[in-house]
Amino acid sequence: MEMPELTAWIRTAPPYDGARSQGYWRVEPSWPLHDGIGWERRLSELSHEGSLTWSGPQWVGSHAPFWDRAGLGSTDSSADDSASLAFETEPLAEAIEILGLPEVDLHVTVDEPVGLVATRLLTVDPEGGSHMICRGSRNLVFPESLSDPVPIEPGVGRQVRFPLLASSVVVPEGWRLRLAIAGADYPVVFPPGRRFTLTIDPERSSLILPLVPSRPESSTVDIPEAPPPPQPPVIVISDELEWSVTKQDQMNVYTKRIAGAERLPQRGDLEIDSELAWAVSVSDQDPNSTRVRFDGTVTYDRPGWSVGTIASLDLTTDGESFDLVVELAAIHDHDQIWKRRWEERIPRQWS
Prior knowledge:
Layout: E1 8-12, E2 24-28, E3 37-42, E4 53-54, H1 78-82, E5 85-88, E6 96-100, E7 103-110, E8 116-124, E9 130-139, E10 158-163, E11 167-171, E12 176-182, E13 198-200, E14 206-211, E15 220-221, E16 235-248, E17 251-264, E18 270-283, E19 291-302, E20 305-317, E21 321-332, E22 335-347
Antiparallel strand pairs: 1-2, 2-15, 3-14, 4-13, 5-12, 6-11, 7-10, 7-13, 7-14, 8-9, 8-12, 16-17, 17-18, 18-19, 19-20, 20-21, 21-22
């Protein structure tokens, strides 16, 4: 019996061009691609200015925080790029399409027994504006496998190869590719427990891209727009979303708040109110200043009846351990009927 051909629907999107395009859909006969093109460049073949050593600041990565790690809400990565080691191609002679998992193969050296390497792959338009395609990072204690730690010997280089996030993007002719390398990707990645200096050897480091050869127009698929879904049996009373990235006395603070209320008439006029808030912070130079704070309140109300919870989490570190404090309280008819607090000190290992 013949096995049916594996079919994958591929959505491709060009880079940011002032109005984020939705791209188009295409059918591929197999996955992984049977005719994919391997594109590899040593970093020494790419243009680079300045030092090959990174030693801070800790906020690199902040233009695309954890709630927008693809960088869709912020298109200006210039501050992060200027605080990274940046390697660029020449303007592309023809458009290319990246589809799959880009990889980096890096030869790195650190001066401490801990270390992190974080990479961001970006497009650069002819006017110099950049936008992130994808990102990836690796704790240098795990050069080959996330299950097999290899202690770092300060000052001794090691080779580390790892994938970036899966991507599907068309980069136009005349644009450049930029690989930005740093020892931080905050606040997506928690920093190691001590400051370190990261050095890259471009002669033994490479960027590897999975490229797609040109496809016939017949492979493009027109998918009609689906009809709008039926309205849910919910009345939205309020809906709030706020986020910010600010600097306060050399402390970089990332906040996000979600709040809202809704009524469900089909469930006895049940009303649900919630407010969730996150605050993550780190100083310019001290990774052990990192703090994560969460506060959340959720209540369920019907006429004459109310229950709810109040929760908080506080995470700090001194470089040797993580200190975690969690509190949870239960509310009934606006009175606190139960509360518990957990405190735990967790030794840091391999970071």
